[in-house]
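Friendly challenge for the regulars: who can give me the structure tokens for this chain first? No prize, just bragging rights.
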Amino acid sequence: MITTRGLTKHFGRILAVDRLDLDVREGDIYGFLGANGSGKTTTVRMLLGLVLATSGDATVLGQAMPRSARKVLPHVGALVEGPAAYRHLSGRDNLAAFDAMATDGRRKDRKRRIDAALEQVGLGAVDKRPVRAYSLGMRQRLGIAAALLRQPRLLVLDEPTNGLDPQGIHEIRDLLLSLHATGTTIFLSSHLLAEVEQLCTKVGVLDRGKLVIQESLATLRQPTGRTFVRTPDVARARALLDGQVEHHDDDSLVIRVPDAAELNARLVQAGVRVLELGPERHTLEDVVLAATGAGDDRVADK
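First reply, four minutes later:
Bragging rights claimed.
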């Protein structure tokens, strides 16, 4: 669905994107993760033909971009750098204007598609208020509705939950999962680890313009070889397993043992109350920090 080879972008002396090789397959929910200033938005804009690459190639839906933009973009829904809208028009009128500018002979079902898109993002009951009266979260939902209006094969979203409250974030996450279940491939740019970890099937991590990780989430979160135990009897468990406990806090321990079932039996026989026991897994946060370091010398994202 998306392939890049050596994709590079300079802004004068600034190297914003450095020889990027993306591989987004049909059916992926691809989390494009990176701090502000890492080059995510610049990359998205190059993929959509909004910014020309300095060097390298980008292919979207099997077609070279930006050369084939007129052929590709009708099948791509996108939200980049926040939703654009005519502030004096209502949400419905904005979607109608957007659809008219991208017309492909589907005017006769425009109202149905607008109603369906607004319903999907939770704006089905929106009134005739102008967009200038919308909250940030409502404007973000409207931008996602515009991206869905063409019933795209590929959905490209740049920070789609920006400005949403926790309930809104949950609703958008459910919406994206339902779209994916019906065959939509999703490319999601975000700086939020939790958002990517809960939603995506594959992760690419950008650090200062370089792609430092590109792997399935399942592979990144493989077991560490240690066992996690949650128990109210931490002190008793530590005394029993002297020398095997590698980490502990008030209600849990991380233990390196060859046989988790034998560990469980040993704890129970000793009267330790085991509330949870299972393999410890790498967190996405641990993987990203290991690949990028913890530096904070970032510049504003392009």
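Confidence is low (pLDDT under 50) at residues 295-302. The domain at 2-220 is CATH 3.40.50.300 (Rossmann fold). Your move, everyone else.
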